[in-house]
Write a structure and sequence with these properties.
- In chain A, helix 1 crosses helix 3 and helix 6 crosses helix 7.
- Chain A folds into two domains: 63 residues, Arc Repressor Mutant, subunit A, CATH 1.10.10; 181 residues, Rossmann fold (3-Layer(aba) Sandwich), CATH 3.40.50.
- The two termini of chain A are 34 Å apart.
- Chain A contains eleven helices and 15 strands.
- In chain A, the strands form four sheets. The first copy, chain A, has a seven-stranded parallel sheet, with helices on both faces. In chain A, strands 1-3-2 form a three-stranded antiparallel sheet. A three-stranded antiparallel sheet of chain A has the order 10-11-13.
- Chain A is an alpha/beta fold.
- In chain A, 41% of the residues lie in helices and 22% in strands.
- Chains A and B meet through strand 2, helix 4, helix 8, strand 6 and strand 7 of A and strand 2, helix 4, helix 8, strand 6 and strand 7 of B.
- Strand 6 of chain A pairs antiparallel with strand 7 of chain B.
- The first copy, chain A, binds a DNA duplex through helix 3.
DNA sequence: GAAGATATGTTAAAATTTTACATAGAAGTC
DNA sequence: GACTTCTATGTAAAATTTTAACATATCTTC
């Protein structure tokens, strides 16, 4: 009982990177904070986590930090993104082939992804490395020039990859959305890549946390009607939800 | 004055791994604890340290601990590899275009690489992420299926990348070398990729730490006479060195 | 040299962690 | 089955650390 809880805590920390004691308390409402503290203490002694004021952080997480912009970006709206990623992960089926983009939400999806016999294509380096930890899963990186701010790749040559590959599903996340301008991002070649993916995939799931609604980025890569499922959080406005459901898009 | 102190603190932490506030106070008796706290706070925001109860610890220190297979591999023969990587880095010239493979030695090369206006092609995800930290440098990842044990990619489609790209120089590292079997590695598609690179590059530098001499891996991707410069450590056998120099290969 | 910005010091308030002790349950022993 | 012992857990006060707020000093820049 104790062992399991400690493993769960370690898992949670590896996925989230960092947790406060309060957050941990929410996950384990039936034990006291003191018990959780003692668990953290044990994990610390095993060298698996580092205790910091207010909670603890995963050693793996620390290894990634270097003060880069990417690491900073990850900290924003974490909770919503994890929830969205969990919803998306629950939709992934065994023996399927799918594309995942390279954004931070996709990064969380990678962490939550079940270790099934599936093939994942991605243009995100961090996503790829995360997925490479899974035993049964197969990863292919779409190569190209590396965009430094989000560690994703994009290249016209990517087309070559898609000529001979097939995937049923594309799971994407956008940096911005309005009903008029659709889903947009900040890089042209990335938008081109995503459009290419869109034309290849049989189904499109879009992950969109509500903080991105109303924003517009320079390059639109998909419109409202292009997607099949919208995965979002509780703060998603009801009137927008209606707009999506009118187009037979599942909002979850 | 502040800047210096902060750098000193960072240095101390990198050397000691961890320091309490009291210890820091001993090092800097002429400023108050509060000032030191504020310094630590700044360093934390830069991602260079992690504040823990009572003091702080160096990120680098934390990075040493880990249980992942890739990280483990990194720990072996670290010192030699770093020295080799430094030698290789010193050969890189501004305004050039080069290929770097995805091995662990290449990873160190990425860390040591000068931040010049150069373009680097690589099939290593970790290498690419490391290089993406540099401001002036341009990185392109050769995509493909991700090999889980060394986080590099390989794919027949990679040819598409090389059709329209040029690089003067390829810097590679081998998993094994004997004079008879040449430079070899453990994956066929990786060997294919490297052979392709070899035919593209005008010059070839090989990084080879002496622990790999006498070993044979299944797939040979280059022979002794294919390379122009061999970068190795002090333990490199003299008789082999002669063999290389006879072929007009620079050994350093 | 004055106004504003930056750096530092001092102290009280807030928050977190530790300690110590109490209780409950599991495991073994006779 | 009752007893002891050990481990896990809970509770609350005590100790420590961190933060916040304000005061002072130092440095810039015009």
């Amino acid at each position: 009982m104790k062992r399991e809880r400690i493993e769960e805590i370690a898992d949670l920390l590896d996925k989230r990177g960092k947790l406060t004691l309060e957050q941990l308390d929410d996950f384990f409402p039936d034990v006291s904070q003191m018990t959780l503290r003692r668990d953290l203490f044990q994990l610390e002694q095993q060298g698996r986590i580092i205790r910091v004021r207010g909670g603890a952080m995963s050693v793996k997480e620390v290894q990634k930090v270097s003060g880069e912009p990417y690491a900073k970006k990850q900290a924003i709206h974490t909770d919503e993104k994890i929830k969205i990623a969990q919803k998306a992960a629950s939709l992934i089926e065994e023996n399927s082939s799918l594309f995942v983009d390279g954004g931070t939400t996709a990064m969380y999806l990678a962490k939550e992804m079940p270790d099934l016999n599936i093939h994942v294509f991605t243009n995100g380096l961090a996503v790829a490395i995360e997925l490479a930890q899974k035993k049964n899963l197969n990863v292919t990186v779409i190569g190209g020039q590396v965009l430094k701010d989000n560690l994703s790749t994009a290249s016209p040559v990517a087309r070559a990859y898609f000529d001979n590959t097939n995937f049923e599903l594309a799971v994407m996340s956008a940096s911005a959305f309005t009903p008029e301008n659709g889903f947009s991002c900040g890089s042209q070649i990335e938008a081109d890549l995503l459009k290419m993916v869109r034309s290849k995939a049989k189904a499109m799931y879009m992950m969109l946390d509500s903080s991105k609604i109303g924003k517009i980025m320079p390059y639109t890569f998909a419109h409202l009607e292009d997607i099949d499922v919208l995965i979002t959080d509780e703060n998603f406005p009801a009137e927008l939800k209606e707009l999506f459901t009118q187009q037979n898009i599942v909002v979850m």
